[in-house]
């Protein structure tokens, strides 16, 4: 569960988020759309406790894990070591549960993370986040730089975890089609402010959203 | 030929001690991004502590271990001063470590005076392939080799060592998985203090230590660490051994008063070469 109320986050004199309020209910999967520089990653970092709000409140129920934009693996460490470090908070050291879910990672366990393909790295980042046994997962740009089939594969795992284990997910995306496929509700963030929110089906029909994020096509 | 071999082995011993100081610098810089100018101070503290403890009648072994732990504590306290406050930039921390080094002068003079002190080490010498080598020199090489092997095991095989490597690799990602990078930085400072301390207890029987010996130690250690771009332990070790041999050869063949200049010259050359290669290095790291 995520509950953000009237959140303001500033870097010195520059305000990155201005009075943002959003909620993600327990077991819900919600999208946050926005262009580059909108403040999406600032929000993700604040939710993960990496940034301190200037004002407002952030409430997170249970343990939250973040898959950061650009994967941010430890390139000189092996896949197994990356996963093990993902269990720093939970105390989980054995990556077997993650291997059961993502068998490809077992095959890659001894490889250095830095030499893997983008899709494999995103899979490691996904597995690393799961090692913390999260109740809530914030995924910052799942599809960034990935082939559509790789994105679809990871999105399938995400949806399955949401469905079967009740994992709460905030999906931060620029790929609105992916977000609308996976989520029922979405928020749109621009220049640090939430400009609209609602059911994905309604937002897809909103000309402003369709023009900005769906290539102008109203679906 | 035997003189050359003697200088070579003695140089390797000097280089091993430099490597320990330099590896402390590298450990701290990798994890925190801070260039620790108080690194030589840790060796001085350990050397002076060893001298005092042995003088008070404490046995060998216990005295040296206690001195190394005192240096590790000094490292931790330096870390608290340098990075204890969240948001301190590496440049500000560098200035703080410089201040800690100067403050340490005053504390050391109050506690031990300003005269050099020494401590007894392993007595005697051995002859290897016709070269006469002090046993203490062999001890320095052996302990340094064992320390580097333990460090490799610590960073390569233990969870805590890998967490430190993670902090060095990507502090943001380390924080994402929940690692407290500030605590890891303090651990790195303590480890740096410990490594400096090991160097101090090994060197004190070979050359008297006083409050300002840290200048020689830090110049040599920094020269070796710069050789390894302040991030690469193995190249740092190679640089330290090269420096130790070069200095000892210079002293052995009649230029004993110019040992420090050898270190400074080498450091200057390496920094100029690295500066000219900076774009390539940046691309490699990215």
Short description:
Chain A has 219 residues and is of the alpha/beta class. Chain A has 9 helices and 9 strands.
Description:
The complex is a heterodimer of chains A (219) and B (286). In chain A, 36% of the residues lie in helices and 27% in strands. Chain A has 219 residues and is α/β, with parallel strands linked by helices. Chain A has a 6-stranded mixed β-sheet, with helices on both faces. Chain A has a 3-stranded antiparallel β-sheet with strand order 2-1-4, covered by helices on one side. With 286 residues, chain B is an all-alpha fold. Chain B has a single domain (2-285), classed as ABC transporter involved in vitamin B12 uptake, BtuC (Orthogonal Bundle), CATH 1.10.3470. In chain B, 77% of the residues lie in helices and 3% in strands. Chain B has helices at residues 2-32, 39-55, 62-83, 90-112, 135-157, 159-169, 171-176, 181-203, 214-227, 233-255, 259-276, 278-285; strands at residues 125-128, 131-134. In chain B, strand 1 and strand 2 (131-134) form a beta hairpin. Residues 280-286 of chain B have low confidence and may be disordered. Classes of the chains: A alpha/beta (219), B mainly alpha (286). Chain A binds chain B through residues 48, 50, 66, 68, 72-77, 81, 84-86, 88-89, 93, 128, 132, and chain B through 159, 162-163, 165-166, 169-170, 172-179.
